Amino acid sequence: MPGDQGYPRSDNSVWTYFGKVTKTNNLDIRAHHAMACFIGAAHEEMLMSLQQLMEKPVEPLDAEGLRKRWHECMEKEENGMYRQSFFEKVKVRADEVLFSFIYFVSMTLCSPQLTSQGCPYSLQDGSPKPTPKGFNPVEMAKQIYNKVAKGATKRLMDFITNLSHGDRALCVTYIDEAQEMAELYWILLRLLKHQDEAIGMWYAVLGTESKLHYYAPEPQDCQWYLLDGESDSPSKQTGL
Fold this sequence. Notes:
Blueprint lengths: L11 H7 L10 H27 L7 H14 L4 H28 L3 H4 L21 H12 L1 H14 L7 E5 L7 H10 L8 E5 L13 H9 L13
Parallel strand pairs: 1-2
Helix pairs in contact: 1-4, 2-4, 2-6, 2-7, 2-8, 6-8
């Protein structure tokens, strides 16, 4: 939360960004879109930041040197200005993309059959409406992820892989105090389900006070995955 002391530092821009979407409704379309926009914006901004660090190095950087420099900027800088600036830029970029694709969300994520019944959740306030017959949040998440976040993630990992001279690259994003995400946590998993399996982008989720059942998959998602003929559950993305 903003103002919290300790490590890692709280990221006020991230808190502000997600403060405008519901955290109590894991079927909300706008919340899915906001999360996907943030993932895409973070990866685009990280790519630009890494490229800038490579262009103006204190000394020539290889892949390991760039990793260390990135860690110093994001985690060890005394005043934390680099990290604050990074997430503020991510917020601005994500807001721009979110606004641009609201029309896409409202016009294309509901098939003609569903549109006649109304989209399941309001784009404005996340207020629940009766879920129309045939609505599948897993397919909705796939369309949103592919449209907004997939390309940015691939471009970032391609850059890191090229620095590694073709060796399999791995990038790990950690999310601390994940219990603060509430239902946004499940939305995140639903989106990341559609990340290409060959992409070496991993996510570590940390929580100080969360319960084990907090990380269990939503029952309705298990049902939708089975209906889609998938044998794996989204819970495979969560490690204990």
